[in-house]
Amino acid sequence: MKLKNNIYNKFAICAAALSLMACSNIDEDDRFIEVEPVEVAKRVLIEDFTGQRCVNCPNASEMIESLQEQYGAENVIAVGIHSGPFSKTVTNQPFPLWTETGDYYFNSWGIDAQPTGVIDRKTVSSTYQSWGTIVRDALQASAPLTLDATTSYDEATRTVTINVNAKGVLDVTGKLQLWLTEDNITNIQYMPDGSVNTQYVHNHVFRTAVNGQDGEDFSIAWDEEKTVTSTYVLDEDWKAENMSVVAFVYNNSGVQQVVKVPVISTEDDAQPNE
C-alpha cells in the first residue's frame, strides 16, 4: 500500500509539473484576446445657413441634392437653417422660415456670408462648390458610436415621441442634439437670376430644437447601450407627414454621428447604424 501511495504521489507531482510547464510555454501576449472595435460608417451633417433673400442659396441647395444623390440621403444629412439678414426682408421683417434659434446658431458660428455650410461641426465653408470634397473626405471616417432613432406620432395631440438608441464603439462624451425639420414647403425665394420665385420648394428646413438650443449632456462607454426618449408637440402650421427628426452627438471634436428619421415612421424607415 505504501508503494502504491508513493507511485501515486510521484505521478501527481509530475502531472502538476507538466501542467505548469504547459502554461509557461504560452506567450504572455497570447493569454488574453483583445476584441477589436467594430467599424461604424460615419454619416455627415451639413448645417446649411440660408435665407429666402439669399440669391446664391438655391445653388447651395442644388449642391446638397447632388451630394445626397451621390452618397445617399441617409448618409449626407442636411438641415437648412434660415437665419441672419437674408432670412429677413429689407425692412428687417422675418420671412416665414426664419427662427430665433436659427439666429442663435448663426451668431454662435459667426457666420458672415450666405450660403455657409458647417460640415460635421469641423469645417465652416461659405464656398458651396467645395462642399463635395469636404463631404467626401468626412465620409471616409468611422464613427465612435452607433446611432439610430425611432418615432411614434399621436395625431390627436400632435405629439411625437422620439427614441434615440446608441451603442458605444469607443468612449464618447459630449451633447445629444434633437432637431425637427420639414420638407416640401412652398414659399418665396430670391433666385440667382434676380427673379423672385413665389412657388419655390424648400426642403430640410430647420423648425425647432427639441431638447434645447445646445442639446443635452450625453456620454456613453465602450460597448454600453443607451436609449434617450423625448417628446414634442408639433406646431399647428407644420405638416407632420413632411417632418423628420435629426439626432446627432457632438463635442469639441465635431459631430460624432448623426441620423435622420421621419416623424411618421413606417417599418421601412428604420436606419440602424451597424
How many strands? 16
The ordered H/E elements are HEEHEHEEHEEEEEEEEEEE
N→C terminal distance: 66 Å
Query: What's the CATH topology label?
Result: Immunoglobulin-like
Radius of gyration: 27 Å
Provide mean pLDDT, rounded: 89
Shape descriptor reads: globular
Percentage beta strand: 35-45%
Oligomer: single chain
Determine the fraction of residues in helical runs and give it as a percent range: 10-25%
Report the top-level CATH class. Mainly Beta
* Number of helical segments with 4 or more residues: 4
Please state the structural category.
Answer: alpha+beta
Major sheet size, sense and barrel closure: 5 strands, antiparallel
Give the full name of the CATH homologous superfamily.
Answer: Immunoglobulins
Stretches where pLDDT is under 50 for at least 5 consecutive residues are: 1-24
CATH architecture title: Sandwich
Please, how many domains?
Answer: 1
